[in-house]
Amino acid sequence: MRKAIELLSRDYYLNYPLICALKHGAQLLAADENGVAVLKPQYNFLLLAGANLLAFREHLPKPDLLEICGSHSAGALASYYGFAESLECHQLYYPHQSVVSDLPLEPLHADDLAFVLENYDRLEPDEVAQAIREERIFGLREG
Length: 143
What we know:
- The chain is of the alpha+beta class.
- The chain folds into 2 domains: 2-81; 105-140, no CATH class.
- 27% of the residues lie in helices and 20% in strands.
- Strands 1-2-3-4 form a 4-stranded mixed sheet, covered by helices on one side. Strands 5-6 form a two-stranded antiparallel ribbon.
- Strand 2 and strand 3 (45-49) form a beta hairpin.
- The longest helix is centred in the C-terminal third of the chain and has 9 residues, at 125-133.
- The protein is globular, with a radius of gyration of 16 Å.
């Protein structure tokens, strides 16, 4: 586990989804100079990050969902696993100490779920709830 976190921390913000998953109980499948593979077994959701993910793909289970952080081999992996559809997602990182606001930026809480579902439709409700539990959704709260 320590080696995986060390490898992922080389580009902490790019690899944050895997770091967060490991901190919240995901299963570490592989960690070496080729990359890191993490599985969220309850969703059969495989998360990958690294420079040479194709090197250990044959040793990984076929997932229902696959997230690849920063890899140029996404197309090859999607083809290998037989995925007919893919979605490219861009995550943004704000590298400053604070947002210019009188409101604090903070992780959302379970009681914010209904508000998020009313205003955000890119994820299924259970995925939003999981992201809130894992403190992966943040907001500015007024009142």
